[in-house]
User: Which sequence fits this backbone?
């Protein structure tokens, strides 16, 4: 039988697409209940007005992650305290896409939006890895010759590989460790500009995640863990 | 005016409100949700002693505003940025008329901007013209996430937006404050994306585009476009309060802004009553980029702070600044710094 812990494990793979952090670590999962083959998950967000497109992606991704577990027949995801909770929950519940959830208000599904933020996440993580290597004494030329499997082990490297796979940018371990937005290997001439922009994106994402955590804490009167 | 260590700073608060979000004025659950969301920003990022009870936050008085900005406040000039939200609030959240009434009582302290919504079409152009004539507007505040009927937002690079911006140009309304929010039409797009500002700024080089909260949560997109468009400015509303709760992040943002757009295109704002200007100003004048970040991000000088706190907006709005509070080189009125080549 499916256990709550299995569901939480599955949810570990579900991220806020805008922040590139998991729903669990962000504190967005408030409850998991298992009853036979039915799993119910409750989600919350930092504000009533968080963007509906990202909210939809989190709900639908949570459903996909939970329903693939062995022994689960029904996965019910309930987003709460959000201005479009009703539309999103109903649409995801009946397996409808984003355009069906918001008829007349959306023109397309959310592949492009998701890919845009996967690109941002990749550049941010690459930026952090570059800085880690430079701080460890490697030179800018090394950033260009390094192979993907040689990245310093850790969450950033793992996620870089995942993102490159998801974006179709090549995740061959022997491939270049760092790539630009369209997947071409980083060159020495690119490095200063690449680093400058990657740091900006990393700071932006980290800053946004910090704000979201703060607002969630205030909204639900949470104390620090 | 704020004085510190023998130096006097001329202060322009580029973004203040006089709103009514009381339950009587809330039109629906969205109006309630909107002010609650604002309140969480206020509570989360203000020093404890500056947090108001929700009832006061929903509707404060004229006396509160004058007291906080000017009596105990260091602000020399404050600019109202009206936000109508007529789908959320019966009489609107704060309109040009509401603000204008206060401006008539305190004309040497307050000015108001207007607003337009391109979805109002031909009729709205006439309304804008009348608004500009009545209130002598020098700027407008645009909220692209404003709901209107079945639409949840709009972009600047659309036919009707350009018609309105042409009208602004014709009427001498030069300062276009752009404020992004969480919704847009179509909803599948990133509502916070500021690339539409890029197009509009290229198309209207005589207008100044002040992007509120420096594009947050899309600081990276904002810096990328602003560095290439000399008429794009970064307004510090919402950025400022991080100086208290997350000073390291504030240092990063200011350092990045100085690098990408420079000291002449960054403008101070409190977003009153979300935050009160005094503590922001006091902390900003004492602020320095943290030492461990200086090798990359540099430092900030008192002259740069003076420009950000008031001189830049004084230039855009034509406010007179006492000579002793000017910064050398500022009088020439050069607009913008050179765009950095990043392409």
Assistant:
């Amino acid at each position: 039988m499916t256990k709550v812990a299995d569901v939480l494990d599955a949810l570990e793979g579900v991220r806020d697409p805008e922040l590139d952090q998991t729903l669990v670590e962000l504190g967005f999962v408030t409850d998991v209940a298992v009853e036979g083959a039915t799993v119910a998950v409750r989600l919350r967000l930092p504000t009533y007005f968080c963007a509906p497109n990202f909210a939809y992606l989190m709900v639908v991704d949570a459903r996909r992650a939970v329903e693939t577990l062995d022994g689960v027949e029904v996965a019910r995801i309930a987003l709460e305290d959000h201005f479009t909770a009703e539309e999103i929950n109903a649409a995801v519940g009946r397996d409808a896409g984003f355009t069906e959830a918001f008829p007349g208000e959306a023109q397309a599904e959310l592949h492009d939006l998701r890919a845009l933020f996967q690109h941002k996440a990749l550049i941010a993580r690459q930026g952090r890895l570059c800085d880690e290597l430079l701080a460890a004494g490697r030179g800018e030329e090394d950033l260009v010759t390094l192979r993907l499997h040689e990245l310093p082990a850790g969450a950033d490297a793992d996620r870089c590989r995942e993102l490159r796979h998801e974006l179709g940018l090549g995740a061959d371990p022997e491939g270049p460790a760092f790539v630009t937005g369209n997947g071409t290997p980083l060159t020495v001439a690119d490095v200063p500009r690449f680093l400058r922009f990657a740091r900006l994106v990393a700071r932006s994402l980290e800053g946004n995640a910090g704000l979201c955590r703060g607002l969630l804490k205030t909204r639900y009167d949470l104390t620090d863990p | 005016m704020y004085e510190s260590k023998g130096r006097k700073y001329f202060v322009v608060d580029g973004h203040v409100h006089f709103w009514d979000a009381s339950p009587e004025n809330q039109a629906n659950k969205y109006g309630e949700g909107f002010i609650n969301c604002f309140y969480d920003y206020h509570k989360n990022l203000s020093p404890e002693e500056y947090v108001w009870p929700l009832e006061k936050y929903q509707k404060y008085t004229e006396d509160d505003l004058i007291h906080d900005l000017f009596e105990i406040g260091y602000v020399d000039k404050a600019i109202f940025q009206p936000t109508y939200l007529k789908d959320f609030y019966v009489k609107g959240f704060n309109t040009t008329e509401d603000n204008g009434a206060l401006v008539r009582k305190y004309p040497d302290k307050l000015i108001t901007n207007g607003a337009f919504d391109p979805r109002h079409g031909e009729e709205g152009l006439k309304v804008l013209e009348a608004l500009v004539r009545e209130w002598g507007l020098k700027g407008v505040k645009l909220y692209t996430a404003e709901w209107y009927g079945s639409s949840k937002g709009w972009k600047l690079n659309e036919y009707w937006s350009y018609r309105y911006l042409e009208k602004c140009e014709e009427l001498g309304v030069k300062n276009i404050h752009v404020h992004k929010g969480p919704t847009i039409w179509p909803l599948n797009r990133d509502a916070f994306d500021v690339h539409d500002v890029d197009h509009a700024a290229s198309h209207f080089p005589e207008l100044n585009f002040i992007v509120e909260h420096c594009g947050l949560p899309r600081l990276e997109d904002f810096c990328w476009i602003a560095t290439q468009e000399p008429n794009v400015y970064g307004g510090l509303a919402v950025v400022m309060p991080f100086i208290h709760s997350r000073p390291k992040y504030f240092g990063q943002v200011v350092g990045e802004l100085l690098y990408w757009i420079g000291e002449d295109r960054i403008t101070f704002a409190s977003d009153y009553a979300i935050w009160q200007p005094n503590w922001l100003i006091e902390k900003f004048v004492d602020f320095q980029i943290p030492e461990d970040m200086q090798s990359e991000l540099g430092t900030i000088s008192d002259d740069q702070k003076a420009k950000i706190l008031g001189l830049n907006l004084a230039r855009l709005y034509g406010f007179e600044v006492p000579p002793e509070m000017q910064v050398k080189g500022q009088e020439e009125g050069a607009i913008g710094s050179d765009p950095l080549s990043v392409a």
In short: Chain B touches chain A through 43 residues (CB under 8 Å).
